[in-house]
Amino acid sequence: MTQEEIKELKEKALKQFLSGESLTGKDGAFAPMLKEFMEEALEAEMSSHLSDEEKGSKAGNKRNGKGKKTLKS
């Protein structure tokens, strides 16, 4: 977020707070900030997941389907 967007968010939040409106929800002041946070968090999680896959391919697969299995009858 740019400094201008942050300033607008502060003003909107203060206006909604003083008027008794909800700060959360679809039209809340915090909705754009929450949306941006969630997008960045999901992108970071995906990047981490993909980098783990790259590391895993070099180190070998720990769960390659080979292992001792027993069946109780």
Automatic annotation (TrEMBL):
Swiss-Prot/TrEMBL keywords = DNA recombination, DNA-binding, Transposition
Please name the GO terms that the record assigns under molecular function: DNA binding; transposase activity
Quote the Pfam families the UniProt record gives: Transposase_mut
Which InterPro entries is this protein grouped with?
Transposase_mutator
* Regions of compositional bias (Basic residues) in chain numbering: 60-73
User: According to the UniProt record, where is the region Disordered?
Assistant: 42-73
One GO BP annotation of this record: DNA transposition
Domain of life here? Bacteria
- Asked whether the UniProt record includes Endoplasmic reticulum among its keywords, one would answer no
Q: What does this gene product do?
A: Required for the transposition of the insertion element.
UniProt family annotation: Belongs to the transposase mutator family.
**Which named protein is this?**
Transposase, Mutator family
